[in-house]
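WARN retry 2 of 3 for item q-0093 after timeout on previous attempt; input resubmitted unchanged.
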Amino acid sequence: MATSATTTRLSADDLLRLPDGDRFELVDGELVEIPMGAESSSVGLMLGYRILDFTISHDSGFVFGPDCGFQCFPDDPNKVRKPDVSFIRRGRLPGDVIPKGYMTIAPDLAAEVVSPGDGAYEISRKAEEYLAAGIPLVWIINPDTRTVLIYRADGSIIGLREADWLTGESVLPSFKCRVGDLFSGLKAPS
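OK item q-0093 returned
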């Protein structure tokens, strides 16, 4: 008698109920561990701090860290991705109230910090998924090369180096920080 292996596909609700669900994303019904090293965590926190400080002083929206899940992907209603830093403009959330579960709207900005376990394919795939979900601005930050790749809804991709300025463009008007400032406290590349 032949037997077949069955794979249980998890839902976004299943992920939300997992005790250690903050360590995972959900793609094609399967858990995908989020690799995060100390260096990438530090860079993500530095970026999140700068955006949070700006949004508080300008009352412009909401900033979220790496444990906030977004369930906003048209190709898979149960897909949950967790950018390292994300931003939603004021007025986009119903009543400007943050929901208890996952966000079901796409953020205005998603930033990913490359971690030691991230592959180039996976990072590129995430950027394309974010754009397909309607996120107008995606930043991929690489601590090893001290660069930022900016993906835009219009399909353009530009790269920035340490001396360049990272701006919020039309998503976070007048926000800017020097790319090199995101890497303060890290050992200089040799």
